[in-house]
Amino acid sequence: MTVIQRDRRFYILLFLLALVLFSNLVLYRTPITPLVLSGEDHWVVVGSLIDLAVVAPLLILFLRRGKKVTVKSFITLMVSGLVFARILIPSIYFEPFTYIPIAAIGLEALILLAELGLILLLAWRLPGIIRWIQSQDESLLFSLSKAVEKRVGKYVVLQIFAAECVMLYYALASWKKRPPTGETYFSLHKNSSHIAFYIMLIHAIIIETAAIHWLIHEMSVIISVIMLVLNMYTVLFFIGDIQAVRLNPLTIKENQLYISMGIGKRMVIPIEEISRITWGKEAADEKLHTKETISFIAQDFEKLPPHCIIELKKPLKAQLFMGFSKSYKKAAIRLDEPDRFRAFIQPKLER
């Protein structure tokens, strides 16, 4: 019943958003415009500005189920709504309000300058961050975001910047490193086609770039350059993800379980926070596509079941793509050596 109610609420909000946009489009961009509006109808324009700069952004934010609503996201959508209003509303009606989009863009520029200031502060404190990372017995994948938060602060733009630095490190500067080995390390990818799958994607992107770039370049230089940059970024991301998977096996250290699947998914689980672990068929029959379960299963050409599912006493945060985080109550894991992992972790749980 809850799922039905959520779906109904989603479609109601979507209908209201479409109604707001469509009604304003009909009002200003159809043959009825001269019949219902005159050059003195300022209050109608004010109502449209409220629709596009306040109502529509709020509806969009409420449609993003499960994502945190922030002041910055609202301001960004508000500025976008005002710019759209400036394009939609004819100049004869919008002339008294020309300063509003300019002021909104100025506000967005101030926010961008503040974020740039945070990045400069991060660069200023980089030596201290590097020393702190070197003092920690953790992989860079887990330690960099902690170091940034500890030395500078918990800001979204810094977490995104740190995530991009991690990606570039694994893509460009980690080739001399070897995967750690020992009784506390458990790989997740060797018995899968994870690396082969990403290499195939990289080849496809390179071939697509070479084949299509020059064709699009003749039509639009800007679009071809944008596509080239995006393809280059995607290739770097896939290379970094491959290296992150290779160099960061599941690790048990100081009664904590460090688990990751590439750059975009990692989690630290204290062993005392584990309520139980289900194995075998019971774990394989568990539904993984739920909001409370995070999956650490290597990419393959076919869907593979987990070897075990760790159930937690309370939801714990996992770091996701671009530095964002989300809390989960369960973690589904597929290992190369499930029996060795079970023999190692079970005594610790019993103690």
Radius of gyration over all CA atoms, rounded: 25 Å
Continuous helix count = 13
Report the strand count. Answer: 8
Helicity level, as a percent range?
Answer: 55-70%
Q: What can be said about the biggest beta sheet?
A: 8 strands, mixed
Task: Give the total of domains.
Answer: 3
Mean pLDDT: 82
Q: What is the succession of H and E elements?
A: HHHHHHHHHEHHEEEEHEEEH
Quote the distance from N terminus to C terminus.
41 Å
**Low-pLDDT segments:** 1-5
Strand content: 5-15%
Describe this entry's structure for a reader.
This protein is of the alpha+beta class and 351 residues long. The protein folds into three domains: 2-113, no CATH class; 118-172, no CATH class; 181-351, no CATH class. It has helices at residues 2-28, 33-36, 42-63, 71-88, 91-94, 99-124, 126-135, 140-151, 156-172, 194-219, 221-247, 280-284, 338-350; strands spanning 185-186, 250-253, 256-260, 265-270, 274-279, 293-296, 308-320, 325-333. Strands 1, 2, 3, 4, 5, 6, 7 and 8 form an eight-stranded mixed beta sheet that branches. A hairpin with a 4-residue loop joins β3 (256-260) and β4 (265-270). α4 runs antiparallel to α6, α7 crosses α8 (140-151) and α8 (140-151) packs antiparallel against α9 (156-172). It is elongated and about 80 Å long.
Pick out its properties.
alpha+beta, 14% strand, 351 residues, eight-stranded mixed sheet, 13 helices
